[in-house]
Design brief:
Number of strands: 10
Largest sheet: 6 strands, mixed
Order of helices and strands: HEEHEHEHEHEHHEHEHEHHEHH
Strand order of the largest sheet: 1-2-10-7-8-9
CATH architecture of the largest domain: 3-Layer(aba) Sandwich
Bound molecules: pyridoxal-5'-phosphate
Number of domains: 2
Helix content: 40-55%
Strand content: 5-15%
CATH class of the largest domain: Alpha Beta
CATH topology of the largest domain: Rossmann fold
């Protein structure tokens, strides 16, 4: 590969990061007498609107330093979501063509967003064909398949380099409980949970990692049984998290606890978040909050104080016609009512029983 071009490409990506501020760590106010603090790391404020901005930057840098990306390389991905949006942004920054393989039934809004960032969409009729089709396209045109599900866990530097874990621990330094008792995240690629899990071990923090999993996802069963070939074959309704198969970037060994969260509970939690704080988030943030509340109620019952950190993964504006639409909720047969009552009760009593699943 052309070393001068690669060097300039890395400078451009570094300069972009240098111009960007770190993402906020918001406080979610809990009753003061609980002695427990809850924080939300706001990943919606990245230039491309989600935590996939970090992943896309890491995947491009990894391809560049591996000599797999040069001035003529077509970048290929299998994603209909936030990853493709962020990768398209970085590809355009480097003057590279970007093609993402996605199911034909992907919503026009998402296609528009990817095209807005200069990406091209290539459709398959059967969703599981996305991966083989992306490989085939890359082979045909001498392109590079970024392959988020395989490389997420290794493209991110788990030791630091301002990864999401280091950023959180640095921002927590002046808090009354600077070392969190728990970090709560979901798993899509599994990369974020792997980064946190490795980082807390490397830095010798006692912090535990909880992973929340939506309905129909294979991760929960795989973590319980340690069978990495565990599949459900069913898609998740919560965008960004939950997979029909266990992805290669999922590292169960660094996860201390997993919770299965009903989709209605996740979607009730984002409405509750908006009502209590004004923050407008996507569905996976609701799954995170539900898990955080379960842990906080347990800490209260056991008389523990401390802090819990979770993520605001992306903003709610992308979901105005889905998760925030009462019609969409009804069409999907979801009932948020009992979950909203449970959330209000939790803030009154501190008790947050596990919902029936
Ligand atoms: C990708 C994603 C996640 C999960 O992060 P991973 O590091 O891929 O496990 C959570 N929420 C949203 C909105 C995402 O796009």
């Amino acid at each position: 590969m052309n070393r001068a071009w690669v060097s300039e490409a890395i400078r451009i990506i570094e300069a972009d990061a240098n111009r960007s501020a770190d993402t906020h760590l918001h406080v979610f106010p809990l009753p003061a007498d609980w002695g427990i603090d809850l924080y939300l790391k706001d990943e919606s404020v990245h230039p491309t609107g989600s935590l996939k901005h970090r992943l896309a930057r890491s995947l491009l840098l990894y391809g560049l330093v591996n000599g797999q990306i040069g001035p003529e390389t077509v970048l290929i991905e299998a994603s209909s979501g936030s990853t493709a949006v962020s990768e398209a942004y970085f590809a355009r920054m480097l003057g590279l063509e970007f093609v993402t393989v996605m199911p034909r039934k992907t919503s026009q809004e998402k296609i528009d967003l990817i095209q807005f960032y200069g990406g091209r969409c290539h459709f398959v009729d059967v969703p599981p064909d996305m991966y083989s089709e992306a490989e085939r396209l890359a082979a045909d045109c001498g392109g590079h398949y970024l392959d988020q599900f395989t490389y997420a866990e290794r493209a991110t530097d788990w030791r630091g380099n301002n990864n999401i874990a280091e950023s959180v621990f640095t921002q927590m330094r002046s808090e009354r409980h600077p070392v969190p008792a728990w970090i709560v995240v979901g798993a899509g690629t599994g990369g974020t949970s792997a980064t946190f899990g490795r980082y807390v071990r490397y830095r010798r923090h006692p912090t535990k990692i909880a992973v929340v999993d939506p309905e129909n996802s294979a991760f929960y069963g795989a973590w319980q049984t340690r069978a990495l070939d565990y599949t459900t074959g069913m898609p998740s309704r919560i965008e960004g998290i939950g997979r029909p198969r266990v992805e290669p970037s999922f590292v169960p060994e660094v996860i201390d606890e997993m919770f299965r969260v009903p989709d209605a509970a996740s979607l009730a939690a984002i409405r509750f978040l908006r009502e209590r704080t004004g923050y407008w988030a996507g569905g996976s943030t609701g799954t995170n909050l539900h898990g955080a509340f379960r842990l906080i109620s347990r800490m209260l019952a056991e008389g523990q104080t401390g802090s819990v950190v979770t993520l605001l993964c992306d903003g709610g504006d992308r979901y105005a016609n889905t998760y925030y639409s009462d019609r969409w909720i009804a069409e999907h047969g979801l009932d948020l009512g009992p979950h909203l009552t449970a959330l209000a009760d939790f803030f009154e009593t501190g008790a947050f029983p596990a919902p029936p699943s």
